[in-house]
């Protein structure tokens, strides 16, 4: 049923009902005819209900937007109003004729109840017709609204691939309601399957209201690549689907509970896609069961666009099969050539058609040859290109593995075009390109990895030039959103025959020092076969007998880790490197030279987890490692080594025994740490703040006493006066911790005279903190408190407001155990939460939010726990989304203060557990500027105080993308910069994790703001903020 049919049907039914109501009015004086007229009315009612059911079923996937849901229920509401009156009319008519006669007599005196009910039905029907204006249909209004709702997921099309008849055909298949859920695109490698699919998915049919999303699988995710190992294949497929789940907003914490089990991951996939309407693009599928797993998912309106060159996948029966043949690409091959040569049709030499024929009209081959002939108009150059292509195709190596003979014949020609393109590039290009065969480039690899490989070959100076040429020649593909690179599957197939040669170039023929610098990169980003060779080299280089190589290797390990694409990749790589370094760390520090100790300390700071420090601290203490590291710190003036070594000593103290704590505090030169807290040495502050906090946790008042004796407190006060925003934040956190742990030793640093010298923001925060320790009057009398509690229970709003004012002084004394106990035993918290609800006076709601904030600040964790029993955080976030700005401000302020207070972690867990982050992210789509503002502020707070799981959740819900895609927001760069600052302030992240997350922000921003009129300014601001925040640790990652 299309839109016009729906409006026509709805209007016709309602008009018929109005006619039936008119007939029923006439029958009200002739009761014998009334039952038949009522039956007619009931039939029309049933028909209207069926129509509503069909419309709701058809558009169920569009109800993620509340306004759409309101529109689709317009007819449903009409039915709900009509049903009671129809039942009432039926009941009146069903009475006996004697009673009917009496009703007529009675009605002549007091009014006919039947006529009244019929009149009410007529009014409802006429009112509905007026609202609909007789010309709009329900689905058109919904579709119109749906168009204004931004797509959640987007795919970009490949440049230079024209729209063909085949792409239009594929799109028409996806638009059909009754077509198969799977559209399978098959054809030779490089013939344009993925380009065609992306072109379709970049502008998906309107039915896919959540947009389109891509999942690239590749040969890596196949049984062949796993050597037939079923468990290895299932593990890889689970990993791919898990990444896909994160893309579509699945909670990483829930995902971790699956432990990588494929069946559990697929169950989670089923749950996550329920109610979604997405065009899912499964690229380069090698196994039939992958498609089957997606196709059998139910409860969604998704379809699956699949590309494959594996004939086994062709056998999927429940799929619309679309094959791309040479005849299909013939119509677009010339346009592809013109795009890559940068020539017009008039400038193209006459032999252009011959070149297309020699390339077999194969898009990838044409692209490679076209880029090699870019802006070339000389006939002889084109003639040479055609002849050379034939020669290179004859000499080119055949593929190591291929699907069928036709694929092998095609591969030889494509490989020939690669050889031709390489010969046209600068010297050394081919050798450098072959070296890339050692890296697993089927998925994006950081630019730093490629640069490290070529640096080890002594070709760092030509890196930028050669990479640019390889990208121009289609031999390497650059991810536009961030400097990462990957290759087409045909290039990957070409590389399969070059792996041994690449390993030989990088690890065998090169010098030992070059091999040591590149082995960690190959261990992190290499192919499986290469990783084994790299691991053997790593173990060899970390031997004490080769100290110089050990230093180079340890430095390269840290650099490779810092290039991780995500926090999960960082954790996986850290675990792999720990398995190699962990068993050797005692030997490296106990026997090694100062240089290797410094490098080992740097690795420990970046790689070791809490469990590692606990595992090795005793062994390290047994070999006097603390003495050796402390001596290194004392005799070294290099701030990189100072921050790394002090960080290791602090962690050993934090996770070691009391004996270790005492030894570290005795040996660590606090004066060296104080020197590094200079305002001009900001690049070291991040590491130092972590070190100071670890020492304070371990040594408590004794550690604080030693720090203050070295002047660290004065340095922190100085940073509060003149440091950056992030530095001030960390200094304030440190001072608060020292105040809590240091007792009388901390009193002087926070005395009123000192506080008065600080900026007002810092002064306000510290005054509020130290207020808890001032002398306070005696606890209030219990009967006075009971009077206030009784007054709070009254119905008189004025009396309740008076009681709320009186409660302020009590709540400010909630740090006293007796007062806190009185409050917790009373019904006050439950009453205050109930006053937050809609329907209470605005002033009362605002005052209630203020009181809950006061209580959380002064009452601490016990009061927070009690509040959470009454769903306080849910009520406050709901109030943040009301339409009264003052209330929104009050609610946000309360949440903010609670998050940053003593009970913040408890509040954070509740927010994660109850799905409040999803609500905050969803509210970014609101039309209310204020709602978006307070939601963004709250999300920024969550980044600053949040756990790793919390931050992962926020990023997985595409908050950065939503901000960047908001074309009407003039403050995009400021908002994103604040998220970056939040990461810098977050104490729950390691330096490595913080750096990886900021890299993710840059990638997301670059991909999202492409084409924005302020694109350059936004990217520059974000890059600048990331660079400024990373100065605290960046210098230690330079080569």
Characterization of this structure:
This protein is mostly helical and 1039 residues long. Among the domains are: 3-96 and 112-148, Four Helix Bundle (Hemerythrin (Met), subunit A) (Up-down Bundle), CATH 1.20.120; 165-324, Rossmann fold, CATH 3.40.50; 327-402, Orthogonal Bundle (Helicase, Ruva Protein, domain 3), CATH 1.10.8; 780-886, Alpha Horseshoe (Leucine-rich Repeat Variant); 915-1038, Serine Threonine Protein Phosphatase 5, Tetratricopeptide repeat. Helices cover 68% and strands 3% of the residues. It has 55 helices and eight strands. The strands form two sheets. The chain has a five-stranded parallel beta sheet, sandwiched between helices. Helix 34 (658-667) crosses helix 36 (685-709). The longest helix is centred in the last third of the chain and has 28 residues, at 842-869. Residues 1-7, 60-68, 96-111, 398-405, 752-757, 767-783 and 1031-1039 have low confidence and may be disordered. Residues 169-322 form the NB-ARC domain. It comes from Amborella trichopoda. One of its GO terms (molecular function) is ADP binding. This is NB-ARC domain-containing protein. Keywords: Repeat.
